[in-house]
Amino acid sequence: MNKRERITAIVVRISNKPTEPDPEESLFDAGYLDSFALADMVGELEKEFQIRIPDSELNPRRFESIARIEETVGKYMAGAHAA
Amino acid sequence: MISFGRYLPERVLGNEELAKRIGCEPDWIETMSGIAERRIAEPEETVAMMATRAAEDCLKREGVKPADIGMVIVSSGSSERRFPGPAAEVANAIGIPGVPAIDLPMASAGSLFGMAMAARLAPAFGRVLVVAAERMSGPALAEPLNSDVAILFGDGAGACLIGEDGGKLDIVDSALHSDGTWAKDLRLEFSGAVHMNGRAVIMQASRKVPGVIGEVLARNKLTAQDVRYFLLHQANQNLIDRVARVLGVGSERFPSNIRRYGNTSSASVLIAASEWIETADLRPGDPVCFAVFGAGFHWGALLARKT
Q1: CA of A77, closest CA in chain B: separation in Å?
Q2: What domains, with CATH codes, occur in chain A?
Q3: With contact defined as beta carbons under 8 Å apart, do B113 and B85 qualify?
Q4: Which of A63, B20, B28, B164 gets the highest tally of CB atoms within 10 A of its CB?
Q5: How far apart are CA B108 and CA B180, in angstroms?
Q6: Residue-wise pLDDT tens for chain A (83 aa)?
Q7: For the whole model, what pTM was predicted?
Q8: Does B204 touch chain A (CB under 8 A)?
Q9: Could you give the domains of chain B?
C-alpha cells in the first residue's frame, strides 16, 4: 500500500465507517473524526509511519483531510529520513 | 497535604433539563462527556463565597485553626471581577485578615499550580491554604449557546491545606508547564461565552497529560504501574479514560466524579481529591499522582506519597 492508502486505512479503522473519505473532503465535517478520534489517529499515524509529530505541530487543520494528513506525515517522514 | 475540603451548590442541573435547552438528546451529553448532572450556583453563591465554604470545610475536617495559616492562594478562572480577585476576601471571611492572599486567575490548572507553589512556599510562610472556586455555568450557558461547551461545565469549590508538618500525603515533586501558542483556543473574555476549540484542546491534552505524568514519574524512578491512584482534572470522562489507556493503567485507579459534577475547572481536582481521600485505600509510601491541563495552555503533574 502506498502512503495515502495506509492513511485512509487508519482513518476508516478509527472512524468505524464503512466508506472511504474523498482525499480532499473534511474528515470532521464528514463525520470520520471527532476530537478524541483525532487524538487516536495521530497516535496511529506515528506508529504506522514510525514518526514523532511534535506537540507544536499538532494543529487540527493539518489533519483536516486525507490529503492534508499525507502532507503532514510526509514532512516528518522526510525529516526523519534526512536526520 | 494536611486536609482537603469542598463546597458544591445544592441546585442540580441534569442532562434531561439541559438537553431541552440545547436541543439535543440527554444520552448524547453523557456519551460525549460522561457527565449526567452538574451543580449550578445561585446568585449569592459567588466565587469568594464558595471558596470560603470549601476552605472552612477543609480546616474543619482536621480541626485546624485559621490562625495557623500563613498564606492563602485562591485559583479561579471565572471570578466575577477584574480586580480584586477573591483571595483577600476569602482570607478575611475565614478570619485571617493580614495574612498574604494570592490570586491565581488560572482556569483548570490553577489548583495544581497553587499546590505545587504552596509546597515550596510553606517552609517560608507556614501552612498554605490552596482554594479553587469556579462559577463556570454562567459563561458556559451564555448565548449564543455552544452545545460542546454548555454540556461540560458546573460550579463548585475545593480546598487543600499544605504544610511541612505531616498530614495525609507528602508532596514529593511536581512538573509545571505553560505554552501560550494555543491561548485563543480555550478562553473566556470578561463578557461573553466560553470559547473552546475542542479539537485543539483534546489533541494537546491527550499528549501533554500523559507526557507530564511520565516526566514527573521518570524523575522519581517510578512507572505508571507503580502509582496507586491518579487524580486528574475532571474535564471529560473520555479524556480521563484515554490518559489511563495511554499510560497502560486500569481506569479503576483514576477516581472520577465528573458524572455528578461536570467540569468545575480549577476546582475539579480538589473536589475529586476531597471525596477520594475519605475512602482511599492507601498504605504508607503509596505514590499518588495529580495531573491537570487547561486554558493557557497550562499543564502539570504533582507526585505525592501516603504519609
Answers
A1: 20
A2: 3-82 (1.10.1200.10)
A3: no
A4: A63
A5: 15
A6: 899 999 999 999 999 899 999 999 999 999 999 999 999 999 999 999 999 999 988 999 999 999 999 999 999 986 554 44
A7: 0.94
A8: yes
A9: 3-162 (3.40.47.10), 169-306 (3.40.47.10)
